[in-house]
Amino acid sequence: MDGQSKSASIPLTSQHEAAREPESGFGWEAKYKRLESLGSGGGAEVFEVIDQRTGEHVALKVSKWSGEDLRRFRREVEILRNLHHENVIPILDDGDNWYTMPLAVGNLTSLAPEMCDEALIEAISQAAKGLAAAYAKEVFHRDVTPNNILRVEQRWVVSDFGLAKRPKGLSGVPTTQGFVGTRGYAAPEVELYGADRADQHSDMFSLGRVVCFITTGKPPQMFHERILVPRIWESLVEKMTAIEISERFQSMNELQPALLEVERRLKEQRRDEWVKKGNASEDLNQQELITLALITQETDHDFRERELCDRLQKHKRGFFNIGLLRLRHRNFIEDHEDDRGERWGLRLTDVARDWLRVNGDRLSPYFVPTVETPPSDDDNIPF
């Protein structure tokens, strides 16, 4: 949906696999306990609810309308039930004017400000894959915005197909006349000639405007407004949002190599920055590389040094502890406190994570197997 929504979605996980065949025509109140509203817009509202049969927290979308608008809502349900892809929101259950979806942790609107460029590339790539799956079924979204790209567990999904366009003759809903979508994200052909002109090319434009927003934090206002994005994204955005349809990427699959190219140039840029700062990967000695490899094998954030040390053979533990001291001096690790403000362990710093994005492949030769202490009959009595 296109309000400030925290709403729902999830990939093909165990929750989706265990979903029952949706039951039509039953009121949701008998099955779900309402907790709070997550957002509203487009004639529907989304709530967080508890499935009283399983105890799971899911998202419930309820139509507030009747007549033609309710028919569109039912069309959305039908579309989603026929789209089975890890990057498209699945339906868990539905009724006459409602359906449930797994609960998301947020959308690109709320999460993008805290995301690095690599994570933004991943989000756009996965959204493009979800849209490509829809196009394979001849379904065009027509309202691609940051609010409708949701984070669920470890992946991104496209949601809210309430304005989606199906092939003529299959819709069951009268052809949409005039403008639909979100100003600033809708393509010029949709703004100028109406919703019936929308297709995968207009969705490409909209996804490009999503890139404008997540890389600048500035919501686009009109289709002809040019937003200055960081230089590394410029050529990608220019091609995605070209006014002439023929100058855009012609498919979401064609977009994927261009995203990889942005990622490649981003790594080059970061490597150059590291060299200028005197922090090039060659500055880490073998001891630091081995220690960092051990840490990243076990965690991507925080850790207890004693637990990692205990997994090493005894003659390597002193080597590991000195490596920790060197990494602390380099500002790669720092103390991590628990909720009470007490020291819990250590964690990787942003400096370390920046280095890993550029040089992570240099650790591969240093990954070492951890060893578990074998069971012994020795009772530790020395005689």
UniProtKB/TrEMBL annotation:
InterPro entries named among the record's database cross-references: Kinase-like_dom_sf (IPR011009), Prot_kinase_dom (IPR000719), Protein_kinase_ATP_BS (IPR017441)
Polar residues bias: start-end ranges: 1-16
Entry GO CC: cytoplasm
Q: Which GO terms describe its molecular function?
A: ATP binding; protein serine/threonine kinase activity
Region described as Disordered: 1-25
Which of UniProt's keywords are assigned here? ATP-binding, Kinase, Nucleotide-binding, Serine/threonine-protein kinase, Transferase
Q: Which residues form a coiled coil?
A: none
Asked if the keyword Kinase belongs to this entry, the reply reads: yes
The reply on keyword S-adenosyl-L-methionine is no
Which annotated residues bind ATP? 61
Extract the SUPFAM superfamilies matched here: Protein kinase-like (PK-like)
Domain called Protein kinase: residue spans: 32-320
Q: Which PROSITE patterns match?
A: PROTEIN_KINASE_ATP (PS00107), PROTEIN_KINASE_DOM (PS50011)
Protein name, per record: Serine/threonine protein kinase
Q: Which organism is it from?
A: Stigmatella aurantiaca (strain DW4/3-1)
